[in-house]
Amino acid sequence: MGRRPSKAGDPVLSPDPVPARAIRRAKAEMSFEDQSLLGTLFGQFDANLVQVENRLGVFISARGDQLMIEGPEDSVARARDVLQAMYDRLAMGQDLDAGAIESLIAMSNEPTLEGIINGDLDAPPVMIRTRRKTIVPRSAGQIPYMRHLAREDIIFALGPAGTGKTYLAVAQAVSQLISGSVQRLILSRPAVEAGEKLGFLPGDMKEKVDPYLRPLYDALFDCMPPEQVERRLASGEIEIAPIAFMRGRTLADAFVILDEAQNTTREQMKMFLTRFGQNSRMVVCGDPKQVDIPGGDRMSGLADAVNRLEGVEGIAVSRFTSADVVRHPIVGRIVEAYEGTGE
């Protein structure tokens, strides 16, 4: 696989004074301590190994707990890093699916891949621990975002769907809630899509807004046992607070997440941000290219806030692109196609 190395006797096509450097071939052997993980590591019919082969242009042969990787030197090094990261995920009890492998492959070209789990001398490990799993970055863009979540007071996360901005915010909130760093988790979003129909939905306010907070609930149940989620909802430790009902409150000792923030007005965003209280953290998630504010001529409160506040101490901005999409690879290609049209 890969470009054929030049050989002696090949015709010279141009008088280029600097001949192209031949691709250096390499081999690398790997072995794994816990053989009980190898079936999951290799995948059914070695599907995981085939995925790494096809994406990185290498050949991988397996014999027992030994792997031999052959191909271009750079690709062999990347494949070795990816396979080790795959094994490490399994050893920590994390799931390994095609999306996770694709993310590890994408990150293997980043200088920060090595040490994502173990950290280095200058930075702590990049991970979020919850009751149900330990979460590590699955794209290059998630690495600085997860560091912001651990350090900054207010974080704006901008980018297309599927980049993990909301999921990671919920995971960090759950981690701080179960550790006692905060006393409450508050989930909020504008109910723009519902419009006047919101009042006609059955049930109390929580039941009216629940359908629009489904992604936040999904992340909650992924990071915390369902019975704990229900208990904390009943006790008020986890609160559903539509943005329209946030006025007049001071949110102290709380981790507050505002989702779909591109659909807030400037007035709503200012009101929301000024609810910030002592020992609190806010994460504001949204896709600036998916604004659904009624009227069409009103500026998004998210875009306005980022323009005003980027660079202010204690406030961080993380921007994601289609390259950070961690769903099925085709989702990233769909995002790129739509972004390319300018619509």
Mean of residue pLDDT values: 79
From N to C, what is the helix and strand string?
Answer: EHHEEHHEEHEHEHHHEEHEHEH
Major sheet strand order: 8-7-9-10-6-11
The span between the termini is: 38 Å
Approximate strand percentage: 15-25%
Structural class: alpha/beta
Give a structural overview.
The strands form 3 sheets. Strands 8-7-9-10-6-11 form a 6-stranded parallel beta sheet, with helices on both faces. The protein has a 3-stranded antiparallel beta sheet with strand order 1-3-2. A two-stranded antiparallel ribbon has the order 4-5. Helices cover 36% and strands 15% of the residues. By secondary structure, the chain is an alpha/beta fold. The N terminus is likely disordered. It is elongated, with a radius of gyration of 24 Å.
Which structural traits does this protein have?
single chain; 343 residues; alpha/beta; six-stranded parallel β-sheet; three-stranded antiparallel β-sheet; 12 helices; elongated; disordered N terminus
Describe what is shown at a glance:
The protein has about 350 residues and is of the alpha/beta class.
Write the layout of secondary structure elements.
Layout: E1 25-31, H1 38-42, H2 47-56, E2 59-63, E3 66-72, H3 73-91, H4 98-107, E4 128-129, E5 134-135, H5 142-151, E6 154-158, H6 165-179, E7 184-188, H7 205-209, H8 214-223, H9 226-235, E8 238-240, E9 254-258, H10 266-273, E10 281-286, H11 301-309, E11 315-319, H12 329-341
Parallel strand pairs: 6-10, 6-11, 7-8, 7-9, 9-10
Antiparallel strand pairs: 1-3, 2-3, 4-5
